[in-house]
From TrEMBL:
Protein name (database record): ABC transporter ATP-binding protein
Gene3D superfamilies with a match to the protein in the record: P-loop containing nucleotide triphosphate hydrolases
Top-level taxonomy: Bacteria, Pseudomonadati, Pseudomonadota, Alphaproteobacteria, Rhodobacterales
GO cellular component: plasma membrane
Molecular function (Gene Ontology), one example: ATP binding
Length: 247
């Protein structure tokens, strides 16, 4: 058995009468893309928030790199190497692409992560940022104002910014959202290459991307995982077809 990088054990989150997550147990293994799919309101974003630390589960726990992180802040989890991208972009639109990447490398973005990171010289920061931009296919746009990027390029930049912190695992909430087919093909290739470096827990509505990328997928319906398996296993699962895929 391969040791998991990231796991949840029976996490439950209630909002009043709504049980948004109901005893969710899943794991993310080295080298894989594990996709979470499910209809709107299934609890996907609530699940991600508990994994990243924005929400505390009512029950259950979250483990990262063999450590129980359930009580740790978002910042602390990020410092441990939990990289994430957001459903709603958190980029500074008036800054250049490179500035956004440098801020990411500094760890200053989204809550002063840099405080506990070793202090880096500017040259190091820029080199790290440029390297991430190159990998994301954005090196030529380094000096472009972020607002001028296409939607797809901004999504690539989101991943590049996360990459500058050299994460041990990625958590992504709908990175393909609102993308055209060209942009999503490019991002699909980028994520496919990225998994060898750090496994990816991927919440995504774009089924073409999910079927192309996922090593395993879990189906979340009304806060519960009703099935986990390979793409083939999930497509053949009659319960999944009834509840979600409608095939
Ligand atoms: P998904 O991301 O799969 O669309 P969410 O995790 O956003 O689903 O939501 C799951 C359920 O929890 C929904 O019924 C939603 O209305 C509810 N919910 C999510 N966040 C809150 C909140 N902060 N307060 C109250 N209800 C919430
Ligand atoms: Mg959501």
């Amino acid at each position: 058995m391969t040791e998991s990088v990231l796991s949840t054990f029976g996490i439950t989150k209630r909002f009043g009468a709504v049980t948004a997550c109901d005893g969710v147990t899943l794991d993310l293994r080295p080298g894989e893309i594990h996709a979470i799919i499910g209809p709107n309101g299934a609890g996907k974003s609530t699940l991600i928030a508990q994994i990243c630390g924005g929400l505390r589960p009512d029950e259950g726990r979250v483990s990262f790199l063999g450590q129980d992180v359930t009580a740790l802040s978002t910042r602390k989890r990020a410092q441990m190497g939990l990289g994430r991208t957001f459903q709603i972009s958190a980029l500074a639109m008036e800054d250049t692409v490179l500035q956004n990447a440098v801020l990411g490398a500094l760890g200053a973005r989204g809550g002063a992560l840099g405080l506990l990171r070793p202090v880096l010289g500017d040259a190091d920061l820029r080199a790290r940022a440029l390297h991430a931009l190159e990998r994301a296919g954005l090196a030529d746009q380094a000096r472009t104002r972020t607002a001028e990027l296409s939607h797809g390029q901004r999504r690539q930049l989101e991943v590049a910014v996360a990459l500058t912190l050299e994460p041990r695992a990625f958590v992504m909430d709908e990175p393909m959202a609102g993308m055209g087919s060209e942009g999503s093909a490019q991002l699909t290739q980028f994520l496919s290459d990225l998994r060898a470096e750090a496994p990816i827990l991927l919440v995504e509505h774009d089924m073409d991307a999910v079927f192309a990328l996922a090593d395993r997928l879990s189906v979340l319906v009304y806060g519960k995982i009703i099935a986990t398996g390979t793409v083939d296993e999930i497509r053949r699962n009659p319960e999944v077809q009834t509840a979600y895929l409608g095939e």
